[in-house]
Amino acid sequence: MGDELDYDPMTELQRALDAADGSALLAAAEDAHYADLAHLYENLDDEKRDFLLKTIGPELATDVVAELPYPLIEGALTHFKPAQLRVLLGNLSDDDRVDVFQVVSEEAQVRFFSLLGPRDKELTRSLLKYEEDTAGGRMTTQVGRITADMTVKQAITVLRRDREDAETLARIFVVDEQGRLVGKVRLRDLAFNTWDTPIHDIMEEADEYVLASADQEEAARKISKYDLIVLPVVDEFHHLLGVVTYDDALEILQEESTEDIEKLSGIGGEQSEVSYLNTSVSQQYRRRVSWLVGLAFVSIGSGYVMYHFSAVLEKAFVLSIFLPMVVAAGGNSGGQAATMVIRALALGEVKAGNALRIAWKEARTGLSLGLTLGLAMAIFISFVLPHMQEGTGSSFDFLHLAFAVSVALTVQVFSATTLGALLPIFARSIKLDPAVVSAPSLASTVDVSGMLIYFSTVAAILGLQ
Amino acid sequence: MGDELDYDPMTELQRALDAADGSALLAAAEDAHYADLAHLYENLDDEKRDFLLKTIGPELATDVVAELPYPLIEGALTHFKPAQLRVLLGNLSDDDRVDVFQVVSEEAQVRFFSLLGPRDKELTRSLLKYEEDTAGGRMTTQVGRITADMTVKQAITVLRRDREDAETLARIFVVDEQGRLVGKVRLRDLAFNTWDTPIHDIMEEADEYVLASADQEEAARKISKYDLIVLPVVDEFHHLLGVVTYDDALEILQEESTEDIEKLSGIGGEQSEVSYLNTSVSQQYRRRVSWLVGLAFVSIGSGYVMYHFSAVLEKAFVLSIFLPMVVAAGGNSGGQAATMVIRALALGEVKAGNALRIAWKEARTGLSLGLTLGLAMAIFISFVLPHMQEGTGSSFDFLHLAFAVSVALTVQVFSATTLGALLPIFARSIKLDPAVVSAPSLASTVDVSGMLIYFSTVAAILGLQ
Fold this sequence. Notes:
Two copies of one chain form a homodimer.
Chain A: H1 9-18, H2 22-31, H3 34-42, H4 46-67, H5 70-77, H6 82-91, H7 94-103, H8 106-114, H9 118-127, H10 135-138, E1 145-147, H11 152-162, E2 171-175, E3 181-186, H12 187-191, H13 199-202, E4 210-211, H14 216-225, E5 230-234, E6 240-245, H15 246-264, H16 281-308, H17 310-315, H18 323-346, H19 355-388, H20 398-429, H21 434-462
Parallel strand pairs in A: 1-2, 4-5
Antiparallel strand pairs in A: 2-3, 5-6
């Protein structure tokens, strides 16, 4: 085995693909991991995709297709003849099969459905009832099920029958005669107990479970919080319907955090699952344009405020030096506060009911940040600026200017921080997505208020009204 | 069991805690999940924390302490007497024990270390060699190990001895006489094969593994990509040192994405692990202040540009209406591009070597977005503005103004988008963190360039120089 350490199936695969060497390709594909094959497929041109799938055949292609980004799945399946498709669709685990049906065109749905065996038809139909982003939509029904009155030997016999089908046997669930979830055993408890031990003696309570109608994120958070390998999914009568596995949880949590990051920058729509380099310019354009155009019109509001105060600027153009800073400091500090609160809401660390505690914490944080910034600027203006900038032709001294700017800065940062913390909570309390709502409303509000705060503060303090 | 569905240990626990009812507290704690207990502990005052830990004792407290946010661990351990601490530290899994040693004060380290048994001392010392954020720093050595020449029966005998210690038996690893990793078997293959089957016949190759010195994120991404429950960790001679488990991967990936989100908003430092509500105002202040002060001084650069062009503004104050918009559009579009690329880099979807492809994609996206925005503004200015704003006293018509603003907008969005995409790639190529570097450099560059682009474009087109 030591000799094989140098052999990399993916390098060999690429070579075979370039040389159109079918038998070498098949041999390498058999050694490769399906996740690597799927990644390779994504980056091939149509002709090579076709050659790859036809060479490895439906058996080996099953896991590869299941691993592909959703938008590529239908295209991949068109490479197969109906008889091959029948094999591939039959081989898919039931949750992957449902995913396929959810993402292909209606015409393909009908065609693929006709290729399924009667049991798979039934199962697929029943799983398609659940929304894609619920625990039911994510679960697999392929789970080890035994009853409490079996012995370890009987349980092993039942499970042996299902062994290759079950997604994981790390946890095996115990159901009653109505199929309701009553407990769980670990495979190690079967392996290490004598064969006549009754399941009833070794089973534990199945405390953690999730309703099929629950959001997929709830399932993922439970798996993460309680360090579970599988989480049972039940209906409202506590019947065991299936399980969500830890690898689903990994996927769900990564999707959600990517979506959160993107929403904060005003990138819209569901995360497409296709990797960045495989999206088109027009897809990128569509996900970003509405936010940019919307915010542009909102920014005209700031422009009007500036225009409105043109008399103040005209009297002392030196004021323009600090205008962008006061406005931007609000955007930056408000954005920080919003980010902290949005992430805390997403991780379930804070609830909308805690609004007062959060506002109080952020108000104090905002005041400290505002005072620090104000002080830093006051020092800069009164000591540094006079030497750089002689004779601005204004009727006030730099000490007054420093005072006025630092007051405006403190007010702006304090109000932006408090607002940035409260906006996501408000959004959540009216059942909107905090990340989607907060970013644009914050940007628009804080820019306008920054202009207003700056001009009215400096005009009042310096007597420029 | 149906009757017990209404019973919630956490409600009962809270009641017992409020009533200072020790025996009810212990009973409820025994039914509760350690993750829930840890979450509860976090939100208690000192007196109740003490009562809770003393009541449940070191055995039950072990998992609770391991689940606590790092900054709370040392405080929690001070509630126990040395004899109890000895039990608790001995009960910890080895990776959790190393975490404890990594996060407590030096003085506590020495005291705790003296309480360990000789084997635990040796193990802890050897694990402390690895940096906290490497695969070696995250791994547990508690893994099922067998050799290829054993039979299934011998393997089960060996594993039975370790059964409660091993973090998971879902995967069992096969090593040679030097302890080098040669393969893996699944527990189900032991459970379902006859007892005289040699391990050699049922073992598979262990293709996925990670070096102990590798970044913890690499381990997490492998677990996620290949849907693994455990990933073996080896040294440079391929000796099996331990495993990183799927629940570590979940934790690592969540920490990393929270950090990425925070960095994009200029929130510094390691994510503290303490939930938002449990951080102090001064912690929040420290994580945010340097970015705000730094950016404030940078913004003065924009202010100087504006001040420099005061003559242009004075000739046509109507230009101030569109100034904030042009500047902000660059920040927004650049931020979107940076976010897409930073996330793609973090997920390993793009490499720095793809810089040209990315720049080309973003340049086209930026041009489309810029042209759209420019067109929208041109329409707004030429059709809507004249009716709102009669007699601005300027020497040019609205058609010229519309043309000038839309040209500036297109140039600003195009350049900001391209820059936003390239900055993270540049940061990665010189081994800096893309999220930390891109946000501030983008904000400062784009604001200044926006002012410059706007004033020079409108001044040139409208003849205001």
